[in-house]
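Notes continue from the previous slide.

Worked example: a multi-chain complex. Inputs as given:
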Amino acid sequence: MKNNAIFKIFKKELDRFFKDRRTLIALLMPGILIYLMYSLMGNFMSDAFMPDDEYVPTIYSVNAPAEIETVFSQVGYTLTPSSDTETEKQAITDNEADLLIVFPENFMNDMLAYQPGSDLAAPNVEIYYNSASTNSATAFTTVTAVLDSIESSLSNKFDVNNSLDTQFDLATDEDVTGMIFSMMMPMLMMMLLFSGCMAVAPESIAGEKERGTIATLLITPTKRSHIAIGKILALSVMALISGTSSTVGTLLSLPKLMGGAVELSDATYNAADYVMLAAVILSTVLVFITLISIISAYAKTVKEAGTYLTPLMILSMLIGLSGMMGEAATERALYAIPIFNSVQNMIAIFSFNGDVINVIITVCANIAVTSIGVFVLTRMFNNEKIMFNK
Amino acid sequence: MKELIKVENLSKSFKLSSKQQKIEKTSEKVRRAVNGLSFEAYEGEIFGLLGPNGAGKTTTLRMLATLIKPDSGDAFIDGCSIVKDPDSVRAKIGFLTSELKLEEFFTPNYLFDFFSSLHGISPEISARRKRDLFTRFGINRFAEVKVADMSTGMKQKTSLAISLVHDPDIIIFDEPTNGLDVITAKTVTDFLLYLKEQKKTIIVSTHIFSLIEKLCDRVGIIIDGKMVACDSLEEICEGKTLEDRFFDIFTEYHGGEM
């Protein structure tokens, strides 16, 4: 009977969540919401900030030399002679035109005659644009680049990367994906896993205290340690469901959020990466659930538990942010620090540098913390001042 | 008769928070809820704990049920110490109090099976007990209704059935008819008499005189955490009604003042 008690408590806790439709929705909804929200954000940012490749900018020019017009025509830009510069400037402000390029009179002659280092000022080209307009800003960048290349070609002493056939950027797509994932995912995953734990643990511990149902359980001959273990295991499963839902939502929406900079394909991460990640996530959830359960057991109500848990949530977020600050820690001893070890492993795994030994140290450390937590929670269940102090 | 419950010098104090001190207009920081309480209960008898609100009845029963620990003293339930062997005590008693609530997401059927399994009762015996208890309390008609949707009476009947899943020989009821309608209250009191016929040992705490008179063989009167009288109902009453006798004792204890 005693051996089965953990399973009975575990099953009862799972039944409680699955019988309560609201809780079930609360567990699965974050993933759906994250996917919809991030996808919408990605689409919005693409629409707002990414240029339309098909768009042909309206560019007015003054004194544009024919040679330069020819160069611009090669990038698909047509320069329309300006009739009234003030009207054109107003049109740019009003988003009705994109650029106004004003060349000095006799620009080509003055430019060819100009000697760098002379006391005379170099011929100055004025380009008016609207930085708030994506199309105008893109046209400005292109025009500036074209003019820079013309200037460079006139005084060509040496070239840099002057070959279209050679790939100079040796970063692979995998490297780019790894870099972006390792920066963003640890923080997002810590946040999502913690949120999943927060959705279930305070309700199960502080909620049962508040409603008086924990006393009904404590009056049975079941060992308090079995109650604690059964609850922690069941809550971890719940939190994992919530965390998985959120993570899947994030992974699916991330390519859209990153505007196509990230591509997630079957070949991106291998089975070993996923196994290591799963081990880290599972042990992290156990630590979170244990800590939240202990704090919830101390609180008199779910609301009070929420207040006590806020600092822990902020701390987890801050540790998660360390993913944005560089590569994973190399010193193995650091992988014995709960929560921090999870973030470091996630950074390593997402950048394709996952280390099995570090993952093992992390899992062992997290299980040790969970075991201590179970002991503490058992003591708390035995403490009448904590369990029955209203 | 076999002595199934033996309470020896049980004491319990609670710290008063500054908020409680303010509400109760007192400067004392510690409230002695139970003060050296001793009594016995024998096999097949109903022992009543009678006293005003705050006398220490519920605290005493909570200690006997091992929900809280005594500061000093001990009690033995069928030979098992509530201090040294609380797990065994829990297996031997059925405890019903308004403090113990049922989870609202579940039905009586589910809860009975769950608590039955926690007590290690085989599914066959559990099914038979469930049939008997559910029939006796009329739970069958709402056996699949969630606790959240049940009336107070339905909840109390379900709690009563669940407290007896393991067919304990010792049953502790704290204010068993509190808040119940007259029909449900009668069902509960009739059931207590039935349990007595089954040679169960029962401790009932209440402040309802008629309930004590109807059910109890012996009575302990608690005032300010102390047992001021403990005897058979006849000996306590001395020919008067229990209510009259209680107020005599109460006035005498308070030096002639109510």
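Summary box: Chain B has a mean pLDDT of 90. Residues 182-197 of chain B form the longest helix (16 residues).
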